[in-house]
From TrEMBL:
Protein name: Signal recognition particle receptor FtsY
Catalytic activity as recorded in UniProt: GTP + H2O = GDP + phosphate + H(+)
Top-rank taxon: Bacteria
Membrane topology field: Peripheral membrane protein
Top-level EC class: hydrolase
Molecular function in Gene Ontology: GTP binding; GTPase activity; signal recognition particle binding
NCBIfam families cross-referenced by the UniProt entry: ftsY
Organism: Flavobacterium haoranii
Length: 326
């Protein structure tokens, strides 16, 4: 099956979400989709052909939908090439063209095809270190990840290494109780690296499959953050030699362009290997996922599309674009 047939086929395939998950994704992106198409309708009003005016208006629509300037310019360039090649493109085709070109752009990143919460079979325990500023939904994301990994049959242990705030430790405890997974914690002000060390030792002794370590979310001093996260990594490696296997940066999608700035700051402070974009359901800024997925050579692994415990999903670019342009 060709790429575009695979993307837009009504048939279910191995990379398709379950029907319930797809409905949740559709609902979660409804505000973003409605806002985008309202702007798009105005951009092509009175026009039958995709010309320079339409492309200028489309550029404005994409930027105002938080796709980001650089990604927007790439999309416009792709459409310009199609106009040049096909000589005539009607505005009624614009939705389909956008859908195809954005999907094509995201496919070049070669990630975002999975639908299941999987962990590598050769990593035990699989150690996931979670970073992000306070307020982005970091603790909630960790709790939902723990739930999904446990649901998938994995034994999970949480580590409360954000010892800067007592509330962070207490919030993670609430999620550990809710999901019914063990948590390793110390007092507020304890050494985060010590908590991480104890968590990994506990996980190894329990023969756990997945370890999720929470970390402090302050960015006021990047050097201190960098040093702290580096120390946490070094100490974890005394227990599990190649830990952490994934450094997940959680971004608040509802902040739009501020999410780009957070990504820049954290990728400068530590090696980030994957991204989670949260709070997409309560805002019209879902386009930020397209821009972040394109701009950072780091895979968007998870997206939050609702408040329910099931509403953290594995990011699948095919399903995302299908829902956005439905």
């Amino acid at each position: 099956m060709s790429f575009f047939k695979r993307l837009f086929s009504s048939e279910k395939n191995d990379s398709s979400l379950s029907e319930q998950a797809k409905q949740t994704l559709d609902r979660g992106l409804e505000k973003s989709k409605s806002s985008f198409f309202e702007k798009l309708s105005k951009a092509v009003a009175g026009k039958s052909k995709v010309d320079d005016d339409v492309l200028d208006n489309l550029e404005e629509v994409l930027v105002s939908s938080d796709v980001g300037v650089n990604t927007t310019l790439k999309i416009i360039e792709r459409i310009e090439e199609r106009v040049e090649r096909d000589k005539y493109l009607g505005t009624e085709e614009l939705n389909k063209i956008l859908r195809e070109e954005i999907a094509g752009l995201l496919s070049e990143n070669n990630h975002g095809d999975a639908t299941e919460f999987e962990v590598p079979k050769d990593k035990k325990p699989y150690v996931l270190m979670v970073v992000g500023v306070n307020g982005v939904g970091k603790t909630t994301t960790i709790g939902k990840l723990a739930y999904q990994f446990k649901k998938a049959g994995h034994k999970v242990v949480l580590g409360a290494a954000d010892t800067f705030r007592a509330a962070a430790i207490d919030q993670l405890q609430i999620w550990a109780d809710r999901v019914d997974v063990p948590i390793v914690r110390q007092q507020m002000g304890s050494d985060p690296a010590s908590v991480a060390f104890d968590t990994l030792q506990s996980a190894v002794s329990q023969d756990a499959d997945v370890v999720i370590i929470d970390t402090a979310g302050r960015l006021h001093n990047k050097v201190n953050l960098m040093n702290e996260l580096s120390k946490v990594k070094r100490v974890m490696q005394k227990v599990v030699g190649d830990a952490p296997h994934d450094v997940l940066l959680v971004l608040d999608g509802s902040t739009g362009q501020n999410a780009f700035e957070q990504a820049k700051q954290f990728t400068a402070a530590t090696e980030v290997t994957s991204l989670a974009v949260t709070k997409l359901d309560g805002t019209a800024k879902g386009g930020v996922v397209i821009g972040i997925s394109d701009q950072f050579k780091i895979p968007v692994k998870y997206i939050g599309v609702g408040e329910g415990i099931e509403d953290l999903q594995v990011f699948n670019k095919f399903e995302f674009v299908d829902s956005f342009f439905k």
